[in-house]
Amino acid sequence: MTGAPPPPRPLRRWRAGAAGTPTPHRSGLEPAYGPVWWVGLAVGGAALAHGALGLVRDAMATVPPAWATWLLGVLVVHDLVLVPVVFAVAHALRRAPAAVRPEARAALVVSGVCVLVTLPALVGGGRATQPGNTSVLPSDYAANLALLLGLIWTVAAALALTRALRGRRRRGDRPAGRSPRRVRG
Fold first, then answer.
1. Tally of structural domains, the chain
2. Does the residue 106 lie in any domain?
3. What is the DSSP letter of 21?
4. What's the pTM value of the predicted model, to 2 decimals?
5. Is 72 within a domain?
6. Which residues make Cβ contacts (< 8 Å) with residue 134, sequence separation at least 6?
7. Domain limits at 163?
8. CA angle 146–150–153, rounded 5-degree value
């Protein structure tokens, strides 16, 4: 036989725990639910229940059908636009040098959050509710967002450059044509 197929990978990855007892590995397929997860579930569930009750209780002000339409639109945009864009950017980021990937990932996450937070102001939805009121959304949000994104990526580039230079010093890399200094002792 020239090449037998490799054996199937196990569904669980185990590592030795206290006194040699097997425990599920965090990178394995089984999730590890700790106390922080359960507290987060309780707090998040309570916040979700409070919001749903407020939506129904104040139906005259919240207009649940309009809210449901908005929620459905957000879910569709998330699944059909945001997720494919994230996957495409992540795939493109794999081609980036390994030295800049952590900073690029952080800058992408922070940039994405800033764009999502700024999106309602960019669209200008509040202006339609108060026509003629110049104090509603008075700034140039597109220019401010561009400035903020430029700052984020400048900081990320500076951090990547600093880390790369520190790594060169630790490895002892020197520019070509220079001999190492002799230490007299």
1. 1
2. yes
3. -
4. 0.56
5. no
6. none
7. 96-125+139-169
8. 140
